[in-house]
Amino acid sequence: MVDERIETPLATRHDQDGVATVTLTNPGRRNALSCAMMKSLHDIFDAIATDRDIRCVILAAEGPVFCAGHDLKEMNGISDCDKHAALFSQCSDLMMRIVTLPQPVIAKVHGMATAAGCQLVASCDLAVAGTSAKFATPGVNIGLFCSTPMVALSRNISRKHAMRMLLTGDPINAETALSMGLVSDVAADDDLDVATTTLARGIAARSGMTVQTGKQAFYKQLEMPLSDAYAYASSVMTGNMQKHDAREGIGAFVEKRHPTWRHE
């Protein structure tokens, strides 16, 4: 007899109005970043990266928890050092895939985002949190310091705020996360969907070429000395000026009309 059961996907993608919504769909495991979950997300982001119709991405989750971080049962079942190294490398690759994705990624956060789940939020370009959302890097409480989440966290908030989260494991609420710079927006839980979608569609309505140019340049110049950053940014703007959408946008502004983007 053929088993006709269909395996539930760990992550899904839904496209509308130039926005791709990527949803973690394993609430029974608190949307933990198992190896299978990370592969599913990476594959989806790879497909989005080359999709010219997508100009912004929302990263969401089903269930009461946004993401609980690594799957501790899976990690505890691994005794081989090389396999642990491969797991953490896979996680780092996923975070880098988000940062290097041409389109901006907005985390839509409800419930808890802990450890690598907090890292996931910090790796996104923007994050909208519901008022009930909480964030933590609690690895210190189980003898496993959140070293890889530390990388993204320390690039979003001040050193002392990051160290406090990492050394205590104490959760912070949405308003505190906003004041620290871990999230960009806070919305009432009932308004979270609308607030995130409005932000994403607003970005998607801009020139895709311009937004992608800006995202890439933003992260690249952060690692440069000041003078090098200005030289690099000047070269980016020079190249940007030669593009159709820059000429169209400036022309539309001068002529007091709405621009018609070709996203090139």
TrEMBL record:
Entry-linked InterPro entries: ClpP/crotonase-like_dom_sf, Enoyl-CoA_hydra/iso, Enoyl-CoA_hydra_C, Mitochondrial_ECH-domain
Annotated GO biological process: fatty acid metabolic process
Keyword annotations: Fatty acid metabolism, Lipid metabolism, Transit peptide
GO molecular function, one term: hydro-lyase activity
Stored CDD domains: crotonase-like
Listed SUPFAM superfamilies: ClpP/crotonase
Function summary: May play a role in fatty acid biosynthesis and insulin sensitivity.
PANTHER family in the cross-refs: ENOYL-COA HYDRATASE DOMAIN-CONTAINING PROTEIN 3, MITOCHONDRIAL, PTHR43602
Protein family per UniProt: Belongs to the enoyl-CoA hydratase/isomerase family.
Protein's name according to its UniProt entry: Enoyl-CoA hydratase domain-containing protein 3, mitochondrial
Organism (species): Thalassospira lohafexi
